[in-house]
Amino acid sequence: MEIKLKLEARETKLKPNQLRRTGMVPATVYGPGISSVSVQVCQKEFSRLPKTAYSQLVDLDMPEGNVKALIRTVQRKAVNHEILNVEFYRVSGDRKITVIVPLNYHGISPAVQKGGQLVEIFHTATIECMSNDIPASLNVDISQIENIDQGLHFSDLKTPSGVKILNPLEELVARVVPKKAGK
C-alpha cells in the first residue's frame, strides 16, 4: 500500500503556534547528502495516516518534487496529543536503514490449548534493511510454542531476504505461562 502526503513550503512569517492555529504543522525533511528543508503539513491529512505509515516509506509530494521518506519523529503535546512537529527522514536507495516494524502474532499455541496464557512481550522489532525491502510487519508464529513456560526468541522469527533483526536474538518475544489461580 502506497502512502502519499502533500507537503508545502514553510510559511516563514508565521511562528509555529500561529502556523498550528491555521491547521498546519511545522515539519522538517532531512537525510544523507541533502540539507534539511523546512516544510509544513496539513494536520488533518497527517492525522489520517494509517498506523502502518510510521514503519513504511511515505511518498512526500514536495514543492521540489516527490521524495520517499520515513516518519522519524512526531512531537506531540503531552496533555492533548496535539501534533507539534514532524520530522521526515529522506531515504537513499543505496544505503541500509534502521526502522521499527510491528510484530504480527498468528497461529494457535498448543501450550495455550493446554491451559497456558500467552504473554506478548514485544509488539515491535528493530530491523535493518534497504529502503525498498521494509516489510509491513514481521510474523510471529505462536503455534511453535508447545509447552507452558516455553517461549519464542527473536532468533526464532523468520525474516524476508535482506532483513536483519537488530534486537538481541536471545531476547524473548512471547511466552506461554501458567494461568493464575482463580482465572
Question: Could you explain the architecture of this structure?
Answer:
The chain is mainly beta. It has 2 domains: 90 residues, Ribosomal Protein L25, Chain P, CATH 2.40.240; 82 residues, Beta Complex (RNA Polymerase Alpha Subunit, Chain A, domain 2), CATH 2.170.120. It is built from 3 helices and 13 strands; from the N terminus they run βαββαββββαββββββ. Strands 1-3-2-6-5-4 form a 6-stranded mixed barrel. It has a 4-stranded mixed sheet with strand order 10-7-9-12, with no helix packed on it. Strands 8-13-11 form a 3-stranded antiparallel sheet. β4 and β5 form a beta hairpin. The radius of gyration is 20 Å and the shape is elongated. The mean pLDDT is 91.
